[in-house]
Amino acid sequence: MTWATTLAKADGGAPPFVRAVLESGTSPKLLTLVMIDDGKRVLLGHKKRGFGMGYYNGFGGKVEPGETIRQAAERELQEEACIEAVDLREAGVLVFAFDDQPVAWEVHVFAASSFRGEPAETDEMRPVWFNHEDVPFEQMWADDQFWYPLLLRRAYFRGVFAFTQTTQLLWHSLTERDPGDEGCP
Ligand SMILES: CNc1ncnc2c1ncn2[C@@H]1O[C@H](COP(=O)(O)OP(=O)(O)OP(=O)(O)O)[C@@H](O)[C@H]1O
C-alpha cells in the first residue's frame, strides 16, 4: 500500500492514526464494491442491515479466504442484487482508516455497464436506479461524493479516507491515474 502512504502524506497530511495504521505492517481488510453504470444511470442498493444500514451503496462485502478479489466482487453482486456483470472492470481502490480500528479497509471498486438477470431485492439490499445527476449523496457514505465523479467518467482512482465515529469523514486524499501505469503516484 505504498501509494496509500504517499497519499496520506499529501494535501497537508492525514491525521496521525491514518499513517500509524498504514505503516503498522498489518494487512488491510479486503472488501469489494460493484457499481452498475449504464452510462446514464447507476444501480445502487439501499442497505437493509449490517454495516452502513440505511445508506445507498454499490454491492459488495468482504473477500473470503480462497477467492480472488474479482471473484468476491462477482459473488457479492450475485448474492446482494441477483445479477451477473457482463463487462466487470476495475474502477479504483479506496482505503478507509477508522480512528477506532487497528486495520485499514482496502475496498476494490469495480464497475460494469451491462449485466445478466433482473436486479431483485434481497435480505441485505433493495436495488434502485438513479440518474447520474440524482445520486443521493446525502444518504450515502461521506466519501462517495468525492470519487463518484471519477467513477462516472470512467477515470481510474485511488483514495485514502479517514473517519471518526465510524461515519464522520475527517480527511481525504484522492488521485486519478491510469491503471496501466505502475510508476509512483
Ligand atoms: C467508510 N466508507 C465507505 N464508503 C463506501 N462503501 C463502504 C464504506 N465502508 C464500507 N463500504 C462498503 O460497504 C460494504 C460493507 O459490506 P458488509 O455488508 O459489511 O460485508 P459483507 O457482506 O461481507 O458482510 P456480512 O458477511 O454480510 O456481514 C462493502 O461493499 C464495502 O465496500
UniProtKB/TrEMBL annotation:
Stored Pfam families: NUDIX
Annotated CDD domains: NUDIX_MTH1_Nudt1
Family annotation (SUPFAM superfamilies): Nudix
Residues covered by the Nudix hydrolase domain: 27-153
GO BP terms: DNA protection
PANTHER family found in the cross-reference section: 7,8-DIHYDRO-8-OXOGUANINE TRIPHOSPHATASE, OXIDIZED PURINE NUCLEOSIDE TRIPHOSPHATE HYDROLASE
Quaternary structure annotation from Swiss-Prot or TrEMBL: Monomer.
Entry protein name: Oxidized purine nucleoside triphosphate hydrolase
Source species: Gonium pectorale
